[in-house]
Amino acid sequence: MRSAIVLGSGMVGVATALHLRRRSWSVALVDRKPPGQETSYGNAVIIQSEALRPYPMPRDWRSLQRIATGRTNDVRYRMATLHHHLGPLLSYWWHSAPGRHDRISAAYAEIISRAAREHEDLIGEAGAGALVRREGFRVLYREQSAFDAEVAAAEALHAVHGVKFSVLTAHELKQAEPGLIDAGLGGLHWLEPWTVSDPGGLVAAYAKLFERSGGTIVHGDAATLTERNGVWSVTARDGRIDAEAVVVALGPWSPNALRKFGYRIPMVRKRGYHRHYAGGSTLRLPLRDVASGYVIAPMKNGLRIITGAELAMPDEKPTPVQLARAEQAARQIIDLGRPVEAEPWFGTRPCMPDMLPVLGPASRHKRLWMHFGHGHQGFTLGPVTGRLLAELMSGETPSVDVSAYRADRFEG
Q1: Which residue range(s) make up the domain with 342?
Q2: 274 and 326 in one domain?
Q3: How many folded domains does the chain comprise?
Q4: Choosing a second label site near 317 at 20 to 30 A (CA), which of 45, 162, 244, 345?
Q5: Is 71 or 311 the better-scoring residue by pLDDT?
Q6: CA 202 to CA 10: how far, in whole Å?
Q7: Is the C-alpha dihedral spanning 171, 176, 178, 181 positive or negative?
Q8: For the CA atoms of 87, 93, 99, 105, what is the dihedral angle to 10 degrees?
């Protein structure tokens, strides 16, 4: 029986492990924490089907100036650590040029368009249907120019991909969400995405399905990974685990784990914060407030506010400035109630400079596989890219052309 170690038990790692088990691999899923307790736990709770074009870096000077001067809550940075991000950010900016972004979007759409189908399969097998709603999410606008631009973009997606949405007046948005104090100028309702009341719980349900299929979940540290005579090993709590193959699916920690083997993988690390609030009004569906750069979503633990991007390294201390701004803005549109947690949660999103995940074999080590860099969409994309990697590892013809995601594209 073929054997593999999968490092990382977020959505990406768990889905990869599941698809390998379906192909009769012996799989040990290794992490320092239980499944779904890092980035997969802290996301915006949406399995997206409308996000067929990854978010590019703004290239107009007005938008860049707003970011540079801190006049937007979408992106925040600290001058003292900005030098760590400059190389990947410049590459991200280069890849965001319209022509290049169009080519990237074509590859991105191939996997996003299959994401819900892959989740459907796992949700059914895991018995996790109670965690999922299939009614989409809404967007609130306060500025007419932003509203008009996103309606035009939605119409373009509908024309090319058949994406379904509806435009809501302020009155219609208020009717749809009676808990709102202020509905702005109105909004969009993306009709086809799915939302999850407990994203960590969904990953945990997939992990239990993996165990029922014969897989093993092990407490261990990816930093102990070694290779000798074609055998990959990692030290776990109960001893050493050996396998013929290893998958690095550690999200923002993946480049650090690979550095000891001579790989230098550029990554834009975007930190996000969230906090739950209870005792106030309710929302029926998640709501994105465009002008203030946050999403507010109904969750098992209350209303969750999820922030935009802070450029930060994984080990930096938290600075939840964006969350404080988002909370202030959210209290203008809804009665939030009180914070549930004493301190906000924070985690890091692993974004590649070309906005596409890394998926495939390493160039200089046999049976070393890379699977990370899904940006804001690891929760959405994990099952579909997990299938693709398992197909590659098993010698099958992948169900999607994977050349755009190859792992060696950043080398040299």
Answers
A1: 56-92+131-193+267-346
A2: yes
A3: 2
A4: 45
A5: 311
A6: 10
A7: negative
A8: 90
The model's pTM is 0.95
User: 359 with 372, same domain?
Assistant: yes
pLDDT at residue number 257: 95
Asked whether the predicted pLDDT for residue 43 surpasses 90, the reply is: no
Higher pLDDT, 64 or 266: 266
The reply to whether 247 and 322 lie within a common domain is: no
Task: Give CB contacts under 8 A, 24+ apart, made by 221-224.
Answer: 221/32, 222/7, 222/8, 222/30, 222/31, 222/32, 222/248, 222/250, 222/253, 222/257, 223/257
> Which of 125 and 74 is assigned the larger pLDDT?
125
- pLDDT, tens only, 139-175: 999 999 999 999 999 999 999 999 999 999 999 999 9
Spacing of C-alpha 395 from chain mean position = 27
Task: Look at residues 337, 376, 330, 299 and name the one whose alpha carbon lies nearest to residue 142.
Answer: 330
Q: How many CA atoms lie within 13 A of 343 on its CB side?
A: 5
**For residue range 185-201, what is the model confidence (pLDDT) as tens digits?**
999 999 999 999 999 99
Which residue is associated with the tokens 């165990």? Answer: 211
Mean pLDDT rounded to a whole number for the chain: 94
Q: What is the 3-state secondary structure (H, E, C) of the chain?
A: CCEEEEECCCHHHHHHHHHHHHCCCEEEEEECCCCCCCCCCCCCCEECCCCCCCCCCCCCHHHHHHHHCCCCCCEEECHHHHHHCHHHHHHHHHHCCHHHHHHHHHHHHHHHHHHHHHHHHHHHHHCCHHHEECCCEEEEECCHHHHHHHHHHHHHHHHHHCCCEEEEEHHHHHHHCCCECCCCCEEEEECCCEEECCHHHHHHHHHHHHHHCCCEEEEECHHHCEEECCEEEEEECCEEEEECEEEECCHHHHHHHHHCCCCCCCCEEEEEEEEEEEECCCCCCCEEEHHHCEEEEEECCEEEEEECEEECCCCCCCCCHHHHHHHHHHCCCECCEEECCCCCEEEEEEECCCCCCEEEECCCCCCEEEEECEHHHHHHHHHHHHHHHHHHHCCCCCCCCCHHHCHHHHCC
Predicted pLDDT of residue 412: 53
